[in-house]
Amino acid sequence: MMSKALKGTVAAAAGVMLGLSGVAAAQAQDEEPTPSGASGTVVEEPGIRLNGDSQDPTAVMLGLDLGDGETRTVYCIQITVGLEEELIHEERPWEDIPVEDLPLVLGVLLNGYDGTNAAELLEAAGVAGETIDPFTQEQIAYAGTQAAIWELTDGWAITASDPTEGEAGVDTAVLAVHDYLLANSEPVEEPDFEPYFEVDDADAVTDGTKVGPFTVATNFDSLTFAQPEGATVIDENGDEVTEFTDGQTFYVQFDEAVSSSVTLLTDTITWTTPAGRTFVPVDAEGADVEGQRLILAEEFASEYAAEIEFEIVVEEVPSESPKPQLPVTGSSLTYVATIGGAVLAAGVVAMVLMRRRAARADWGSDS
User: How confident is the model at residue 229 (pLDDT cuts 50, 70, 90)?
Assistant: First the structure.
């Protein structure tokens, strides 16, 4: 007796790993995808001078100019090293950053000022009503957050009796934000900075022209697509599926024989870059330069376009025993063949970046 078994391979989405972790969607038609990683130039705005036990640094409000009209809030994580503001700063993993307590720093960032929430932070710290002239709420929120970060990364301590260059209300507000963040922040491990899209077919079988179930594992916020030619992506109820999210189960219903490729042209892939990315200054050749390391304070979403290809091959293989019968259709239940105990995954998954436009900095189109 012969039965149809699914055979193929599943590959990690190498195209996504390369393309979406960097500038990704922002490449011109005649350019190659950029390497993974992100970069930008430093932008400075006036801040508040802080008084401390070892030095009196100014919490200059720092941002990274991403080359797309947006600047993202970042903080210094090396108080004893000078800022190389004229140099490009490139992303590096935490393991390459000579800074202690980055999990605690990220915990502070997730509760602290991210460039958008100054009023909310001052309210949470109980100082929304303080007189802070001539400074703004943004400067207060940034200074308090930076002071908390420096305490973690450099062992620097703010002077509680006279914490800032400002008047009493400024002192009270900055110190309260600092104290609030250190008292209410828990360590957060380095987030997954690489986007991924994987398909698990461990339970996939063929039933006529229907193949599945497949289960999506991804850290994309969403991935929408148009139905492919020659097949329909459906859910367990037979309804059309036009979007993939993490943990979703789907099937592929072919128009004809179940031995074909399925190409999905996406409408959008939405990927949220998390807070906590770390950056170092680099020279013209891209080599690291001694200088303040910076950490990204805010998450942001970017959209991309890509193609996904599922290659599903059905082969006739000997059956050792009759397969159980479906009660209604009588079709045989066929399980995915295995070799050495490893599932032969159902579908080569490849995501190929569709280069859309050029961009100067290595971030997504909405970075």
Answer: confident
Nearest to 173 by CA among 128, 134, 138, 142: 128
Each residue's pLDDT tens digit, 2-61: 334 443 333 223 233 323 332 233 332 333 332 345 788 999 999 999 999 999 999 999
Render 2-46 in DSSP notation, one character per residue: EEEEEE------HHHHHHTTTTTT---TTSPPPPSS-EEEEEEEE
Closest to 174 (Cα-Cα) out of 198, 139, 124: 139
Structure tokens at 261: 């490729």
Helical axes 137-154 vs 102-111, angle rounded to 10°:
160
Give me the residue spans of the domains in the chain: 2-35+192-274+300-353, 39-184
What pLDDT, in 10s, does the model give residues 277-333?
A: 899 999 998 899 999 999 999 887 777 766 666 666 655 444 444 444 333 333 222
What's the Cα-to-Cα distance from 21 to each of 228, 332, 362, rounded to whole Å?
Answer: 26, 43, 9
What span, in angstroms and rounded, lies between the C-alpha atoms of 207 and 196? 29
C-alpha span between 32 and 43 (Å, rounded): 29
Number of Cβ within 10 Å of residue 342's Cβ equals 8
CA–CA distance, 321 with 146 (Å, rounded to integer): 68
First to last CA, the chain: 57
